[in-house]
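Late entry, evening session. Most of the bench is empty. Finally got around to the prediction I had been postponing all week. Sequence below, unchanged from the version circulated by S.P.
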Amino acid sequence: MACMDQVTATLAIRVVPGAPRDQVMGIADGVWRVKVAAPPVGGRANDRLISFLAEIMGVASRQVCLVRGHTSRQKVLEVTGVGPETAAERLAGAVHR
């Protein structure tokens, strides 16, 4: 749950589940492309995406919330405690690493 006085970044993500490893591929038209190693079964890809983004952002998993796209590859997530510019910098720094 976000506090009113905390910054929040909203991220548009296109997830590719079942990849060989977790990886940020880049951004196109404002949508980040992220590969996750978990399969799209039983919410495992969503859980892995949340954990992976939390690692990149340097926040706890509970600070990353899946807002829209639970069963779609197109997702919207919110990261509490990280501003939009910081989130973009951290994702850009994680591209292809």
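Two things to note before I forget:
The two ends are 30 Å apart (CA to CA).
Residues 8-93 form a domain with the Conserved Hypothetical Protein Mth637; Chain: A; fold (CATH 3.30.1200.10).
Will write this up properly tomorrow.
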